[in-house]
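Q: Hi! First time doing this. I have a protein sequence and I read that you can turn it into a structure. Is that right? Here it is:
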Amino acid sequence: MITGVGSIPVPVTDLDRALRFYRDTLGFAVREDRRMPDGTRRVALAPGHAEPDVTLTLTQETGDHSPIAGVAFLTNDIHRTYAALHERGVVFVDEPCMQDWGDWEVEFQDPDGNRFRLVQRARRSH
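A: Yes, that's right. Below is the predicted 3D structure, encoded as C-alpha cells:
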C-alpha cells in the first residue's frame, strides 16, 4: 500500500537562484544537495522547523518547461506570513482571502513561475 508522498519535483532554470529563494526567502532547510550519477544536481528542501516526510526537489531544467501549480504550504497565521514574505520580495498573485469552506488562502510564485498556495486551515470540529 502507499504510505505517503516522498517528494514533489519543482522545475527551475537556475538551481542556485532557486535554492536562495527557497532557503533564504521562504526559510526552508536543505535536506539533500548532491550530484546524481548523470551529473545533474538534486536539491531537496523542506520547511525548516519540521521533520516532514515530503520534500520539494529542485530539478534543473533546460529549454521549455511547464511550471507546477497546486502545492500548498501550511501556516498558522496567514496574514503575518504573507506580510513577512511580501517584505522579502515574494511575488503574490493576490491577497489572503477566506474560502467558502473556511480556510484562508493566498497564491504566490517562485522566480521560475511555479505557483504555490499558502493556506491557513480553518479550525474544524471532528
